[in-house]
Structure formats: C-alpha cells, structure tokens
Amino acid sequence: MIKVNALTKDFPLSRQQRKELNTEDKIARAVDNISFECHPGKVFSLLGPNGAGKTTTLRMLSTIFTPTSGTIEIAGIDAIKYPQEARKKIGFLTGSTGLYARLTPIELIDYFASLYNVPKYQLEERKKYLFDLLNMHDFLGKRIGKLSTGMKQKVSICRTMIHDPEVVVFDEPTSGLDVITAENIIKLIRDCKDQNKTVIFSSHIMSEVDLLCDDLAIIHKGKIKHEGTMLDFRTNMQEPNLTAEFIRIVQS
Amino acid sequence: MIFKIFRKELLDTLRDRRTLMMMLVIPILIFPITLNVFVSISASFQEEAAVKTLKVGIIGDKNSYFAQQLNEIPAEMGAKKLVFFKDSASLMTELKKDSIQLGIITEKQFDQTLASQFPAKVTWYFDATEIGINERAEQYMKIIEVKAQQNRYDELEVDFRKVTPFQTVYQNIASDKKMVGQIAGGFLPYIFIAFGFIGCMYPAIDLFTGEKERGTIETLLTTPVARWQILFGKMLVVVLSGLLASSAALLGLFISIEFLEIVDNQEIMKIVNEVLSPLFIISMFSLLLPLTIFFAGVMIPIAVYAKTFKEAQSIITPLNIVMVLPAMVGFFPGIELNYLTACIPVVNVVLATKELISGTLEFSHLALSFAVMVMLALASVFVSYRQFGKETNVVS
Q: ipTM for the complex?
C-alpha cells in the first residue's frame, strides 16, 4: 500500500538556472501538493508529459528525494521518518537503469541481496525462482557489459525483485526498449499484480497505461489533473480515444 | 554494510583496466623503466667520453709552452690530440665547427711574462653545452698551473709551506644516513604523494561521477543502506587505491635499486636498506593515510558534483598540480620541519618523511603534522559527506 498526502517538492534554483529560466523565483516547484493511494493487487499509473513531475514523485516514494512537505506511507511505514525501513519494502526499476558492467549477473544479484539483508536460504530460493522464470541460466557468469539489452533488462528485473518487495516502483520502465524487451516488463508488472504487490508506474504512453493499470493519476506541471480508476476514465472520456482524452485533460 | 559496499566497489575497481594501469602497473614499472633508461644512457655517455679523443687547438707548434705541458699530462686523464693553428681566427672557426673541442689562446708576450714571473694570461675556449668539457679544461689548467707554481717557488727558493698560512680541512660531521636523507629524502615522499594522488583519481571519478553517468547510483540509493555508508564504502576504495599506487611506486623503486645496481656504494646501499625498514614504512604510512584520505576527500566532492567523467577529469587533473607542487619543497635544501611548516599540508608530510629518513625527526613536529593532516582529512570527509548528501548532486 502507498499513501501519499499533500506531497510537495521544491528545488532551489541557482543564479545560472534563474537566468536560464528567466525567473526571479529562488525555487522551482516540481511537485505541488499531490495526494493519491495505491492498493495491493492493483496497478497504479502516474501519467503525464515530460517534465510533469512523475520521476520526482517516484524518487520521493523511493526515498531518493526528501519531500519539501507532505507525507508518504509505504507498506504502513512513514517513509520520511524511516526511509531505510521503507526502502526494504520497495523494488525500484527505471527504464534508464544502469547495471555494473564489470560484474556478472550472479555477482550483481548477490550484492543487492546482501544490501537488502536477504537471508541465505531465502536468497537461494529467490534466485532459483527468478533465474528459472526469466530464463537467465545461460548468461549468469558473463560480464554484464557483454550482455544484450534484453539480457540486461532481465538482470534489472531480477535485481528489483530479489528481496521480494511489497511495493514495486517503475519509472518509465519501457522507455528506450524494443517491443520484445518491453514485453518482459509488462509481464513483470502483471506478475506483481497477481502476487498482490502494490505497483506504481509512470509513463507518458497511453496505450501502455490502458493495457496494465487499474487506477491512474494524470499529472501536469507538478499537479494532479485527474485521479480515478481506469474504468471511470474510459467511461467518462469526452474524446474519441484515450490519447486525445489524456491531451484534453493535460491542456484543460 | 560499509564492508559490503567496499568489497563490491573494490572488485569493480580491480576489473577496470584504466584504474589498474594507473594504480598498479604504471607505478611499479615507472622506476625500473626510467632508471634503467637513465643508467644505460648515462653509462653509454661515460663510456663514450672515456674513449673519445679530445681535440685541443693551440696557436703555434709542438714546441709551444702549452703543447709541451699538455703532452706531459698523463693519458689516464682522457685521450687528447693537439691541433696547431697559426692564428686565433682559424682556431675559433674550427672550435665553432666542433672539429676541436678546446681552444687555448695565450697573450702575445706570454713567454716573456711567464719568465718575468708575472701572471701570464691564458684563455680557454669551449662550448659549455658539451657535458664535462669545462671540467676537463679546469683539470688540465690546474695540473699545468701547479707545476708552474712549483717552478716559481724553486726559482725564488721559497718553501711553499711558508706562503701557505693555513692547512684547511672541511669535515662533514653529518652521518651518511643524514646525507642520504637530505639528498634523497625529498624524492621519496614526492613519489608517494604524486602516485597517491593519481591512484585516488580514477577510482574517485569512476565510483562517483561514473556511477551517476551510468545510471547505477539511483538504484543503489533505493536500497536500505544509509547514504553515509555508501559514501564511506566507496571512499575506502579510493583511499586504498591511492595507498596501493604509492606502495607500488615504492616497490618499483626498491626493485630498481636492488636489481639495476644504480647505487654502487655499499655504505649507501646499507643505509637505503636500513631506511626501508618495517618501522620506517609504518611511520610513512601513518602520515600518508591521512594525506590520502585528504586527497580522496578533495576529489570526491568534485566527482559528486561533476555530471560527466570528462568534466570531473578536467577539474581534478589541474588540481593534481596544486596538490603535488608543494611536495617539491622536499627537493630544496634548508627547509626544515618546524612548528610553522608542520601546519602546511603536504609540505609537512614531505619534510617529516625527509627527517624520518635522516633520523632527525622530532616527535612534537611529527605529532603536529599528523594532527594537521588528520584534521584536514576529517574536514574533507565532512565536505564529501555534505556534497554526497545533496540530492541534486547525486542524481542527475
């Protein structure tokens, strides 16, 4: 479960940045007083154009950024007061996720498992389950730098899920991937939903959202413009297709 | 948790060829290679100089005064051939063409002046860019002059002891160890500092800027590891790399001294071996540790701030000069470790090491140097901690 209440994030602007943006403001508000809830067994989508505040929101949820104000609850834990505890419950994956090219997949998985303090017996079980599921056995000993994009994506997925997180955060997970590699991510999101995990993912592709999500929030210039179920969105849309409706809401 | 980060980062670093080159391969090889080249070139020059026949130009013929005197100089002082000229202009022309290496021109009434027991003017011409040529001229002249002087004493029937009021002896009381410390003592810490800095540089950029550039830091920050633990784990690798590079350079130097026979004086070799004792190495590392932490602490905030590997490299590389330049103070004689110099970072480490080798180090100076370096190291770690804690620095 994720509970977000009145979340705001300001970034200080340097003199150079103020000059570039032609503003007198000393801060830039990336996220402005947003609230939403994501439930276990459901996929929540944060939809918005580039620069809307999606990544900043997800970075606050995964405690990389500290909010300026507001509250975040991750699986019942106050993520602002106890960020380390909250992080134990989160699996985080972005489309631009890099991997340590000089390590092998097995070394990388073991490393992240150790950071999450996954017990040894549980680790062996999880590794077997994920390696079988993702069909990774053939390249476990190769250096990551020598793997194909699809193989790397599988390693990223395995790394995200090794500690069996309750909450999974995907930041534009399919960005830059071909359709076959992106399919691994779509399958993962569905698996997470089936396993009753709380899933939040950001995207600016309406078709992807339509395919996967149960609930959605449309964010623009740091503010939530629409929030509700996907079913309601489809039922009440005023435009002939989902993309046109998304554009209408953003521009309203 | 720090150890887990450290172990992984070390493995990652040791698999980076560029870092390995800068951290181990170059420091180990640089001294054996450069010293080997230096010794070979120097030996070949000496060999060449020993067999080369020096051509000396003189006005007149074989009966002239200088021709006779030069012929009497023993051949052990180097082979020479006399070339006779009729006038000074042709002598100077040949000298400029290097067909002769030394030219002797005497005053017009040379023989008369000499006979009337006045100083007779002799001018030696040579090209000072040719190594050792002026020394050869001075040696020849001294032999000829001493002989002429003795002749005059005999002619005047003067006991030369009566016109020599003092029998002066300049006695150096410094031990060989102190001498080695003063001459070579500045060199050793310079090597340590220069290679320590280079050794820290690549891991610092790779583990901070590189991780940001490759997009791996974001994932690491979502794990339940405190940010300071990540920083310390990485910093330990940077410091270790610096120390490893310094040690590799020392090893390279040791190999050069032991196997290339650079030092042929057994007494000096004994001192060198004494200097490289375990106690000296421990003392040296106790000074180098805070210095390397300071280097890491200076580089990490830059590496954290920089957005690309290239940007970090372009800032840190010139910093190398600022940091390593004070280490050259060890080459200058007369600068000693005192309460003032002990407060100047880098300089204090160089001078303390120099005095450590000479055996003249005072504990209070060492303690102050150590305290200054530890304080600076702590301050730089704090700056790194602050910079690494800034959200906008860590995630691009």
A: 0.86
